[in-house]
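Many introductory courses stop at the sequence. We go one step further.
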Amino acid sequence: MATALHNSNSAHFPVEFIDPLRVAVVTTEWNYQITDRLLDGVLKYFKENGYPEDTTSVFRVPGSVELTFAANQLVKSNCYDAIIVIGCVIRGDTPHFDYVCESVTNGVATLNATTDVPVVFGVLTVENEEQALERAGGCLGNKGEEFAECAVKMVNFILKLKK
């Protein structure tokens, strides 16, 4: 998924506009120099695709492990059509990277399997800051835009099921 060509792959599949649409974005304070860029990508997608500013509500949590709790609370609020969680975990010298990645991955997967609100996994799990920057507006584009598009596509999926 993290290739230079990936950003153009989704162009073959149109994205239907949803009105109204309410999306919660939960982003981490940790590695904010990356997560803020990803958040900018999310907001850019919605703006460039004609969504009003109040389409998104942004929430911040300390780190990636806390994303699951926040997303679960937002699901329970019944206020949002989709939730995007944004984080960035950079490998270090200890196994902490593995524990954090496993926790947030399993948490988001559980929410997606047990609730009716799609939770988009927008957590970069990278070896170094350079790889993160490449995916947060660098040579590989801004994955935040992809997270937003994914949210819209998943809400469209749900709407089609309800017809």
